[in-house]
Amino acid sequence: MKITARPPWLRKHRRLTPEVMRTRRQIDQLGLHTVCESARCPNLGECYACGNATFMILGDHCTRNCAFCAVDHGPPQVPDAQEGEKIAAYAGSNGIRYAVITSVTRDDLPDGGAGHFCLVVGDLKRLLPDLQIELLVPDFQGLRESVETVTALPIKVFAHNVETVQELYPRVRRGANYLRSLDVLKIVASLRDGQELPRIKSGIMVGLGETEDQLMRLFEELAAIPVEILTIGQYLQPSKFNAPVHRYYEPDEYELLREKAVACGIRHVVAGPYVRSSYLAEKAYRGSL
């Protein structure tokens, strides 16, 4: 398949300003990992310049090897029991009010890492009681107990990305299951008992070969849960070893996708070429209120 070259307007340059380098040094000195670095996020320079980062817990080696993802696949690492305290140290010294915490997938752990999420959130709230937290979690292999455990934490947003349409899972998300991911989000919805929090959030990439009909079905299925926040961004091939881009969406197409998702019943949709699940996450949360 011949791949269309990335259009010039879709080239976001990383500027290694003193502010960016300061953020990077602080994170490295604390021995922390960010999905910004590990997943080669195009927004790294913009976010690091403001001191913002999405912290990735449970190591930086994923037990899965999704075709779209740049995070390293390898032997899992021993969880760091001080991870929450280290994140709190960074957030406290930088005046962070809203933190997004994600993780690699840990299929080697009996609970998928849910217990470690509890430890991290517990330490964060103990040290920074006013900190607002969004969790972007893996599927925990569909374990209801793990999903329930994380949903019960004092968080503002429970996020789990479906990433793409069901038909592309065998090629793009090896080891994952579309229906299982929907079930994770449904469990959260069933536990809220009429309450507004935590907000339920998901994210997808476009440009992997999905069709409009497939996207519409995905929007409808997410809205039925209900997912209240959805992010839609362009898939950008992080390396030659990852899945190729099938096409680049034009800027005006993202507004059409946003309108269609909202029309299906999703309360707040953020769509754009550089949109990622944790990009401007606090703003998205506020927009869903």
Write structural notes for this entry.
- The chain is of the alpha/beta class and 289 residues long.
- The protein has one domain (8-287): TIM Barrel (Alpha-Beta Barrel), CATH 3.20.20.70.
- Helix content is 37%, strand content 13%.
- The chain has a seven-stranded parallel sheet with strand order 1-2-3-4-5-6-7, with helices on both faces.
- Helix 5 (114-127) runs parallel beside helix 6 (144-151) and helix 6 (144-151) crosses helix 8 (178-191).
- The longest helix has 14 residues, at 114-127.
What is the total number of structural domains? 1
Largest sheet, strands/sense/barrel: 7 strands, parallel
Shape: globular
Instruction: Identify low-pLDDT runs.
Output: none
Number of strands: 7
Distance between the termini: 44 Å
CATH topology: TIM Barrel
Number of helices: 11
How do the strands of the widest beta sheet line up side by side? 1-2-3-4-5-6-7
- CATH homologous superfamily classification: Aldolase class I
Protein structure class: alpha/beta
**Global Rg:** 18 Å
Overall mean confidence score, pLDDT: 93
Order of helices and strands: HHHEHEHEHEHHEHEHEH
